[in-house]
């Protein structure tokens, strides 16, 4: 039996949050509904953030209300604070995520808080989510490089990972937000983080600006990670990381994992259909 590796689809959130065009809710729902037939276990579809900061995610509650839910599939949402968590819960998110940074510059630019302030803000969100029975993911951005502060020390990532673990995050997603990390940098970062968190609780979230995301996934596989975030059609970027291109494309990750002998449970034909939709959404932007 081939070993299972989960691809966590983040296109409808990480992808679409960065498109210049205001994408109608109906288009987002159509993309999620197509992805729901592809065999994912989790799809990130929403973000309950300030619409002044990220206007593209303003229709998140409508997206959650409008999709046709597939059984056993968890629809997840970003929740930066208690207000976001309460809105996500009311909208029916199955899992939520807090999102911090390993660098002070990005933390300030993205969520208007120092790392320490952000952790204080996340603690009640994680506690409330757990009390409501929802799994919580903790993202860490800028795990190797920051657009504001430059190189990020592996020990800084490990510190934030340990704090998120202690807070109760069941899973920690390690973001190469700029997409410039080399496999050597990812390996060094993982060496530090793995001293704090076991590999089954880590996910690799790699953007593909420099075309090295698949190599970074391979390095991470070698270190025991079995969850990778990807965006259909390579959608995305981050509004607070200038120059960052999209997440690694789900189709590319699926093909590479299959070639390496892993089982992803993804139906490549349905995924290709979703990629056509995603690229058409981007082309109009
Ligand atoms: P702030 O300005 O410090 O907070 O923003 P505030 O409490 O003063 O609120 C400002 C305004 O936002 C107020 O409205 C609040 O009501 C409203 P006003 O009184 O001015 O009319 N507000 C909200 N509205 C809706 N939902 C909410 C909410 N909270 C406050 N939950 C805040 C702090 C965190 C809210 C803001 O900085 C923010 O929304 N940031 C989000 C930035 C973002 O979404 N970035 C992209 C996602 S992260 C990412 O992509 C990286 C990742 O993919 C991993 C990787 O690649 O590295 C995850
Ligand atoms: Mg991202």
Automatic annotation (TrEMBL):
Q: Where is the Pyruvate carboxyltransferase domain?
A: 5-272
Q: Which family does it belong to?
A: Belongs to the HMG-CoA lyase family.
* Keyword terms, alphabetized: Lyase, Metal-binding
Q: Name one GO biological process term.
A: ketone body biosynthetic process
**PANTHER family assigned:** HYDROXYMETHYLGLUTARYL-COA LYASE
- Taxon lineage: Bacteria, Pseudomonadati, Pseudomonadota, Alphaproteobacteria, Rhodobacterales
Q: What class of enzyme is it?
A: lyase
Q: Does the keyword Isomerase apply?
A: no
Citing just one GO molecular function, the answer is: hydroxymethylglutaryl-CoA lyase activity
Keyword Lyase, does the record have it? Answer: yes
- Name of the protein in its database record: Hydroxymethylglutaryl-CoA lyase
**UniProt-listed NCBIfam families:** PRK05692.1 (NF004283)
What are its E.C. numbers?
A: 4.1.3.4
User: PROSITE patterns, alphabetically?
Assistant: PYR_CT
Give the InterPro entries listed for this entry.
Aldolase_TIM (IPR013785), HMGL (IPR043594), PYR_CT (IPR000891)
């Amino acid at each position: 039996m081939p070993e299972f590796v989960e691809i966590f689809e983040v296109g409808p959130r990480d992808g679409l949050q960065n498109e210049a065009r205001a994408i109608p809710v109906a288009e987002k729902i159509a993309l999620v509904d197509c992805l729901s037939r592809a065999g994912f276990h989790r799809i990130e579809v929403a973000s309950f953030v300030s619409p002044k900061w990220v206007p593209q995610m303003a229709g998140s509650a409508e997206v959650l209300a409008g999709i046709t839910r597939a059984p056993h599939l968890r629809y997840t949402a970003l929740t930066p604070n208690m207000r976001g968590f309460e809105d996500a819960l009311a909208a029916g998110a199955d899992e939520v995520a807090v999102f911090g940074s390993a660098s002070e510059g990005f933390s300030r630019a993205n969520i208007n808080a120092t790392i320490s302030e952000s952790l204080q803000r996340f603690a009640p969100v994680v506690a409330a989510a757990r009390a409501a029975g929802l799994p919580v993911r903790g993202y860490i951005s800028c795990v190797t490089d920051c657009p504001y502060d430059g190189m990020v020390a592996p020990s800084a990532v490990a510190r934030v990972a340990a704090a998120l673990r202690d807070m109760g995050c069941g899973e920690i997603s390690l973001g190469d937000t700029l997409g410039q990390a080399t496999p050597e940098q990812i390996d060094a970062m993982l060496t530090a983080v793995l001293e704090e968190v076991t590999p089954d609780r880590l996910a690799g979230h790699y953007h593909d600006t420099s075309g090295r995301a698949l190599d970074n996934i391979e390095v991470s596989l070698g270190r025991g990670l079995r969850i990778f975030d990807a965006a259909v059609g390579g959608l995305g970027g981050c509004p607070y990381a200038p120059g960052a291109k999209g997440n690694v494309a789900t189709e590319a990750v699926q093909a590479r994992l299959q070639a390496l002998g892993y089982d992803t449970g993804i139906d490549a034909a349905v995924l290709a259909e979703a990629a056509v939709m995603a690229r058409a959404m981007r082309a109009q932007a």
